[in-house]
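Q: Hi! First time doing this. I have a protein sequence and I read that you can turn it into a structure. Is that right? Here it is:
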Amino acid sequence: MSNALAPGICAGRLGEAELAENFADLHPPLTAHEALVAADRCYFCFDAPCTAACPTEIDIPLFIRQIAAGRPKEAARTIFEQNILGGMCARVCPTETLCEEACVREAAEGEPVQIGRLQRFATDRLMAEPGHPFHRARPTGRSVAIVGAGPAGLAAAHRLALLGHEVKIFDARPRGGGLNEYGIAAYKTVNGFAQAELDWLLGVGGIELLTEQRLGDNLDLGELLESHDAVLLAIGLGGVNGLGVPGEDLPGVEDAVDFIARLRQAGDLSAVPVGRRVVVIGGGMTAIDAAVQSRLLGAETVTIVYRRDRAAMPASRYEQDLAASRGVSFRFNARPTGIAQTADGLEIRFAYTEATPEGLRDTGQGFALEADQIFKAIGQTLDLGGIELERDGGKIRVDGLGRTSHAKIWAAGDCAAGGKDLTVTAVAEGRDAAEHIHAALMGSA
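A: Yes, that's right. Below is the predicted 3D structure, encoded as structure tokens:
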């Protein structure tokens, strides 16, 4: 992959006012009156399917009832007891395929209770209060090292600190937050919320965050094991899959995760370069976020090309429709076969595919798209920096407690085998791994 700026890619396609409008909050916060009206639609189910659908098992009917009773801060405590990153999850969770899809109102009327927005309403209010709502237990004298300051690492750190342990978090990037800070579309989490939430979480005490510490570079696992009672790996998936086709190293072809991170860290959106014609390869949330934000920056045409059909696309139909509403086009059942430089930019060639009992195969037909910029969003891979741990399907093998093949090492989040690659799932895994680490350190496991 080249870092050179291709001729058809430039900054400043839109003015400041239009960019501000394009990147405004995707779901503006509810007013107090709107929250009461939304809460009133909840049936407060006893065996609530929404709670069962939540990876962090938040008691959703309880917190909505607390909002309806005019006690949003109590509602926030109910949320935070299960999901300390409930503020971010309220903004970025695919609620349309989790709690809200399971909502009885969705089944009966096709319009669920606005669980995500109600969760944001409650958590925002408590986070605006001075101090931290939770207090640490008496010190245990034990210490835990966490590698990775993303959702899993932060959730684990907070729970371990709450239980009385001393925690050090090491992260490879200049800022903590992981996916929340670097990998989510800017219009989903505005006004620096990721860093504000991080600062708030660290307010519980007992947690030290050290940045620009990378495993296999300036951070040694052996030294962590010697100086701490346990280590949790929450490093996410640092590598990116390549297309494996000629021309993917040409200027103008780059990883979508790098583009999203660059945009998230930009102080001035008008300074972020984007092509006039953009093609995104992939079908997950990274592909959607790269495509939508390209359009919001001023790209004239943006096309997502996915190798399977629409039904198989990992991104939810809601996200697909959101992209379409922003002017993104979709092409299905096609895979890239090569990229070439042209006098006017890039040409990417595709072969049509079809599903067979033996897997995908080419049909013998194809097409080509002209582009200035091509984003690769076909999945990420685990980079352990040379650490030897048992793997399962390309991720770290863990038991039901999050423990790896090494007795003092646990793993959680996207780097660990078994869970879905979602922020809320990472939070649940980090929280649960922390509980199991605590039990092991205190002799009750």
